[in-house]
């Protein structure tokens, strides 16, 4: 079932307000956890109902644990969720960001098991809408990153191993998949080893007021590592945060991703989703190269625990750097509500409403978009 934009907005807003009330009661009941330091733990579990263009209407449960291993480390966070949708999809996932050894080391873990519909309109920046855009995929994936501090307290270098096993269960008459005209149209495995360079001077990992986050990630996918495809992936993610007057922050992000050789279509850089180019179905446009520039103005706790954000961005995909065209640039803009779940570490529940080029989307989750 596809809900119209007005129904989506009011349904999600109602659920957001009700869930915020429930979570606030829980925070009050367990308020002593907000005052603990190293070794203390704050956690919550909540049911949810939400809608995104990718999932339709979904019912699930999620949770988060955040704690500090030692007084000099950033707070670590472990999140997990699972949902089932009205069109028989399901998704189970968990992720963890663990800071330890006085912030000198960082371990990132993620795992996902899902049976979901995805949407494929072909490759390129001007692909038209098609009648049979959906296909059913099954995924098992995990990713492990480990980073260590070198020279400067803000600078880390690390490594990564990532693996994804994707099966195309039903092509649903999608013309590109039925014709086997794209790489990976029957699924396959992608496994890669990578290297990470990271500079992180943020004053808070959940809600930064000052500082920056600059990361370069290079991953080599090869049959030698168990992959069915040989290609390289390069990601540049630059973010900057500027605290203005009290409780207001201006945030910027430049994101650029490009792949070499012949990656499967499902591993190509994807435009859209809940973090970049909100308002577009994730993967509505995809190609070997993708960029996104976005800015967000954040008002923390304007009324009680509720905050507000406004965002705007541009982005596009292309087959090569010299193939980007001003005529194809796509806009993204919108606003979002925030509910402060945890005062000390500034952990927020979020709902964003985004618009793009003849499209829109509503997104629900934890933490900021970037």
Question: What is the strand and helix layout of this fold?
Answer:
Elements: H1 5-29, E1 41-52, E2 56-67, E3 76-85, E4 90-100, E5 105-119, E6 134-150, E7 152-170, H2 175-178, E8 188-200, E9 210-221, E10 231-243, E11 248-259, E12 270-271, E13 285-286, E14 289-303, E15 306-318, E16 330-342, E17 347-355, E18 360-366
Antiparallel strand pairs: 1-2, 2-3, 3-4, 4-5, 5-6, 6-7, 7-8, 8-9, 9-10, 10-11, 11-14, 12-13, 14-15, 15-16, 16-17, 17-18
Name the CATH class.
Mainly Beta
Helix content: under 10%
- The count of helical stretches stands at 2
Order of helices and strands: HEEEEEEEHEEEEEEEEEEE
Would you tell me which CATH topology applies? Answer: Porin
Low-confidence stretches: 1-11, 24-37
Structural class: mainly beta
Estimate the mean pLDDT confidence.
89
The CATH architecture name reads Beta Barrel
| Separation, N- and C-terminal Cα atoms | 30 Å
- Binned strand content: over 45%
- How many domain modules? 1
* Strand line-up across the major sheet: 1-2-3-4-5-6-7-8-9-10-11-14-15-16-17-18
The CATH superfamily is membrane protein fhac: a member of the omp85/tpsb transporter family
Describe the overall structure.
This protein is 8% helix and 56% strand. Mean pLDDT is 89; it is low at 1-11 and 24-37. The strands form 2 sheets. The protein has a 16-stranded antiparallel sheet with strand order 1-2-3-4-5-6-7-8-9-10-11-14-15-16-17-18, covered by helices on one side. The protein has a two-stranded antiparallel sheet with strand order 12-13. The chain is mainly beta and 370 residues long. It has 2 helices and 18 strands.
């Amino acid at each position: 079932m596809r809900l119209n934009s007005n129904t989506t907005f009011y349904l999600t807003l109602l659920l957001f307000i009700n869930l915020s009330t429930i979570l606030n009661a829980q925070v009050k009941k367990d308020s002593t956890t907000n005052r603990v330091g190293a070794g203390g733990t704050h956690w919550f579990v909540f049911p949810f109902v939400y809608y995104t263009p990718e999932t339709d209407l979904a019912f699930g449960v999620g949770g988060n644990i955040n704690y500090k291993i030692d007084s000099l480390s950033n707070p670590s966070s472990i999140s997990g969720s699972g949902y089932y949708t009205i069109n028989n999809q399901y998704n189970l996932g968990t992720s963890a960001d663990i800071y330890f050894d006085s912030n000198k080391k960082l371990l990132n873990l993620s795992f996902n098991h899902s049976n979901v519909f995805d949407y494929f309109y072909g490759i390129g920046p001007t692909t038209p809408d098609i009648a049979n855009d959906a296909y059913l995929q099954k995924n098992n994936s995990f990713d492990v990153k480990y980073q260590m501090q070198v020279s400067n307290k803000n600078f880390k270098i690390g490594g990564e191993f990532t693996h994804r096993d994707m099966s195309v269960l039903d092509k649903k008459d999608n013309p590109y998949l039925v014709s086997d005209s794209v790489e990976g149209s029957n699924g396959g495995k992608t496994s890669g080893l990578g290297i990470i360079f990271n500079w992180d001077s943020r004053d808070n990992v959940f809600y930064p007021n000052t500082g920056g986050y600059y990361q370069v990630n290079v991953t080599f996918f090869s049959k030698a590592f168990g992959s069915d495809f040989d290609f390289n992936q390069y990601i540049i993610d630059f973010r900057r945060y500027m605290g203005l007057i009290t409780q207001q922050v201006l945030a910027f992000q430049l994101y650029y991703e490009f792949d070499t050789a012949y990656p499967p279509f499902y591993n190509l850089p994807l435009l859209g989703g809940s973090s970049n180019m909100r308002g577009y179905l994730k993967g509505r446009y995809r190609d070997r190269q993708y960029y996104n520039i976005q800015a967000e103005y954040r008002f923390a706790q304007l009324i009680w625990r509720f905050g507000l954000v406004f965002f705007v961005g541009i982005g596009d995909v292309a087959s090569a750097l010299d193939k980007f065209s001003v005529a194809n640039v796509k806009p993204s803009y919108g606003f979002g509500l925030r509910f402060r779940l945890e005062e000390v570490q500034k952990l927020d529940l979020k709902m964003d409403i985004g618009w793009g080029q003849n499209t829109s989307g509503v997104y629900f989750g934890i933490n900021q978009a970037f």
